[in-house]
Write a structure and sequence with these properties.
The chain has one domain: Alpha Horseshoe (Leucine-rich Repeat Variant). Helix content is about 50%, strand content about 0%. The chain has about 230 residues and is mainly alpha-helical.
Length: about 230
């Protein structure tokens, strides 16, 4: 099996659930970008800044959600899987731009899995609208027939919180009652940060508020209550 080197190798287009296929033209177009070594590193976590972010940017969220935001930084920050918002503040503009384009390709074309998590942590600290589509793809990953690892999913939701993109609103509403605690709490955190509201896991209340702000109604398939996947037969 060919090993995909996420940091230095070429990003391959992988069709989820349908095997692997490459897109030569897209791969060639991104070859130089994907092959360029990462010469700088984002700043290490500063937990005092993480506390300030939790208390200010998520001030309208329920206290439990604010503590969850801070807990995320405490738990995942020391390993580099959570970064402060200004972690890339000292990077030169050209290297920051290169990293954004790299992450855009990684998240939009990459297969779902934990190998995306380091890139998701970086995308969370790089507030750029070009990353939203890839983050929504990862956050929206779902398998109804079987349970799956939600690490990449909730990290994508957490990254969307900082993006504050209206495009992600309906998806975030669909996740407020998700069976995975990290996913549902971060969906609530993201919505509270963006809207200044907190309707907990009440999808109907979120949907009414969303519509009242002049947005189109949220699609019915996103409004269905979360259902646990069937247990495997013995």
């Amino acid at each position: 099996m060919r090993r995909i080197n996420v940091l230095f190798g070429m990003v391959f287009v992988i069709a989820l659930g349908a095997g692997c296929q490459t897109n030569p033209s897209k791969s060639q177009a991104n070859a130089k970008l994907a092959a360029a070594p990462l010469t700088l590193a984002p700043a290490a976590i500063d937990l005092s800044k993480a506390r300030v972010e939790a208390d200010t940017k998520y001030a309208k969220a329920h206290p439990e959600i604010r503590e969850y935001v801070h807990w995320t930084a405490q738990t995942f920050g020391p390993s580099g899987m959570w970064l402060n918002e200004e972690a890339f503040a000292t990077w030169p503009a050209d290297q920051r731009e290169s990293r954004i384009l790299y992450l855009k390709t990684l998240l939009e074309d990459g297969e779902y899995g934990r190998h995306l998590c380091s890139g998701l942590a970086e995308a969370s600290a790089l507030k750029d609208s070009r990353l939203v589509a890839g983050l929504m793809k990862v956050a929206g990953y779902h398998r109804s027939a079987a349970d799956y690892d939600c690490r990449a999913k909730w990290m994508a939701v957490a990254a969307l919180a900082r993006q504050e993109s209206e495009a992600a609103g309906p998806l975030l509403v669909s996740l407020v009652d998700h069976g995975n605690q990290n996913t549902r709490n971060w969906a609530r955190a993201a919505l509270a940060r963006q809207t200044g509201q907190d309707f907990a896991q009440d999808k109907q209340a979120w949907a009414r508020w969303w519509r009242d702000q002049g947005h189109p109604p949220i699609a019915e398939d996103l409004m269905k209550p979360w259902a646990a996947p069937p247990k495997p037969q013995p």
